[in-house]
Write a structure and sequence with these properties.
The structure is a single chain. Helix content is 71%, strand content 0%. The chain is mostly helical and 168 residues long. Helix 1 packs antiparallel against helix 2 and helix 2 runs antiparallel to helix 3 (48-72). The protein is extended and about 65 Å long. The model has no long low-confidence stretch (mean pLDDT 83).
Amino acid sequence: MNFWYFLTALTLLSALMVVLSKNPIHSVLYLVFTFFCISGHYVLLNAQFLMAVNIVVYAGAIMVLFLFVIMMMDLRKNMPDSKNTLTKLAGAVLGGTLLVIMVAATRKMDLGQVTPETYSSQTGMVESLGKILYRDYVLPFELVSVLFFVAMVGAVMLGKREAGERNF
């Protein structure tokens, strides 16, 4: 249980550094570290498949995409003006409101009790996840696959423009 607290503190600290870091490259690196800490939580929850997917998809592919986008931007030309006091106050109020909502929602949660009779060591494994996904959630799974296909076709169509076509 002490390792869970340590990992949670490390996750929260690295997530806070994502927001507070001035350099966008450092923010991306802190976000990668946050994803690795979240993967550690998945291991503690006996969800090894989710841990592997989190590392491969988010810490690998998505973060490489973020790094490419940041490197392609001219950050010196696109530097925002410093924020005024009203913007900082609005952000603090919005963040505090979100914190109050999250604390209230967490207090009303009922996690239930885990007993040795109801515990299954195969909960987060690929086989049980596949059975639930393809038995109980087959329609949402297929709809998401169609959505990904449409997004892929749209990205190809937007990226493949002829020389004389108008830009949006």
